[in-house]
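Figure caption, in words: inputs first, then the predicted bound structure.
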Amino acid sequence: MAPSGPGTAGPLDLPITSLRGVAGRRSEAFSRLDVDSLGALLCLFPRGYEDWSAPKEIASLQDGEDAAFVAEVSRDPTLRRKGRMSLVRTVLRDGTGAIAAVWFNQPYQQAKLSKGGRYLFRGRVKRRDLAFEVSNPSFEEAPEEGGVGLKSVYPLTRGLSQGVIRSAVHEALARCDGHLPEPLPVPVRMEHRLAAAVYAYHRIHEPDSREDVGIARRRLVFEELFLMQAGLRILKTRNARIRTAFALPRGVAIDRAVGRLPFALTKAQIRVSAEIARDLARDVPMNRLVQGDVGCGKTVLAALAMLQAHEAGHQSALMAPTAILAEQHRATLERLLGQEGLRIELLTSATPAARRRSILEGIASGAVHMVVGTHALLESDLAFHSLALAVTDEQHRFGVRQRVALSTAEGTAPHVLVMSATPIPRTLALILYGDLDISIVDGMPAGRLPIETYTAGETDRPRIHDFLRREVAQGRQVYVVCPMVEESEEQDLESAKTTYERLSKVIFPDLPVALVHGRLKAKEKSEAMEAFRKGETRILVATTVIEVGVDHPEASVMVVENADRFGLAQLHQLRGRIGRGPHRSVCILMADDVSADAMERLRTLCRTHDGFVVAEKDLQLRGPGQFFGVRQHGLPEFRIADLYRDLAVLKEVQESLDRLLAADPLLESTDNRCIAPGIRSRFGTLFPNVGI
Ligand code: ADP
Ligand code: MG
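Bound structure (adenosine-5'-diphosphate present):
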């Protein structure tokens, strides 16, 4: 809860330091958790609960459980020190038995307990030989009877303890009483049986029972998803209503181009292409997402849409996440549309200044018909003569923010076509792309052979090398992919370089092996890719720069090093680089010394080729943040909603919004007026300048 607009400064906006006992180091610790105000503190939701509600008898404690029990201290605790370590020991007893208690490095506990004191303890119980022991139990005065309910467990950082956070939250709840905003309209709450905000905030932090937590959590999850969705849907309505686009009637050029293709379009391609063409013909800006498994043939759909823009006399742009891909797309457009007499330019951060100037001039005058590029296309000095269509490929790398930037630019709105590389489960697509219409290319070009996928280990290397040698001898080409983990680019680069050295000098000194990675200059990168495309290089060692989009049918073998370090969806994406031609394709996932779980995860890929199934599994195993790649996804950070667990709530949110928006498209009625401030305060940075 950030400030929710002018004139609303209240206790929620008070700094965290206004709480008793929070200053200096502690307030710094809070700010490491992104908590600087009382409102933000109340949104620091527990990551779990300790159950102190039903104390057990000592005789019934089980090995390994976290349990609460009421007991008497049966002898004064002893303290032993050894260097910087310390150990406090005592014995706890109730009518049914006794248990040893130990505290490591908490010498102060000795003074807190004395023989005969009765307390409620809670901790992890372990069997030691024949006796039970509880280590580092927390404790408090024993209540008259029963337990003391549930206690929240918060994410911690150095300098904060659960106790400190709990009492800070307790005070913040009291101070904010009567000031908690309620962004959900009453009828929505009634209809979906959602608790009021006040109730939810109190009970999520200080519940009496699991049931309380469930009710509170449901309400808060609903709210978070609702505000995000409402933001996207309002954006969609505003885009459609307020801004007009060039109407691009479908002419004859498309059929001409389709006739020249070296293949027949699949049924799915024909259907989606028609959906796009229909959208483009209207003067309402299109906002459409095309989803389809890797290799289903999305590029040609973009090319046809761009041709439609051209035939109507306007320009189009195609934006890709990497320079390698941008260059490949430009070549594809030339190949598919070259005979239409088009000027198609490439613009990346590597385009030389003079060349760039001349391209910009061409874009401004209309002499350039289509431009393909990277993020460089978003730069502000790019002025189009008449941009009618903006296509972004491999969208999940751009994210909501960039999309909003693109679609809220001044002037006539371009039609926006988004092509997603990673199949995303439909419900999730709605959260990410709620402002878009969705088309699914659900079929593959005929004749594709499934990619044989295997896991392998260090001992298999000699056999794998023989296999690679045979494949290369038969004219095939090979990718060897090394992991790229954002945290340590340096180290990853090292691993790619080492692999390259080993393969080029030791194993295949007689074969042309090359290395391509993200640190190369754009020109070097594209030369390396070009050499591979031409077949001059037979084995290409690469980091994940080749992950997206690269299309080279002669490459039919891929070896992925340290495959366990990749997500499943990413591996599926990588593997999609092969299996694009008529040859038998083989993907080998190298994984050594990995856990049984990790191995099982990888085997999923050996079993299935359906990207939607892989995505679903990946999402389930790793959660949405990881699924989309930590920093690249553009997915808003949810505080409480879990896009996998909470799909049912998301569905309710969709239904609720469908109904509300049908009656009140911009959510401006008296009932609904509480929503916009909620969107602003929760997702303000995601929807700047969209009039919410
Ligand atoms: P993606 O959907 O992963 O972006 P691409 O557009 O790169 O896939 O297409 C993959 C390959 O399939 C390309 O070589 C493309 O020329 C080819 N292709 C596309 N559509 C068809 C089709 N209908 N029949 C045969 N090959 C096709
Ligand atoms: Mg593609």
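The pocket of adenosine-5'-diphosphate (ligand 1) is lined by residues 263, 265-266, 269, 292, 294-300, 445, 549, 551, 553, 580 (CB under 6 Å).
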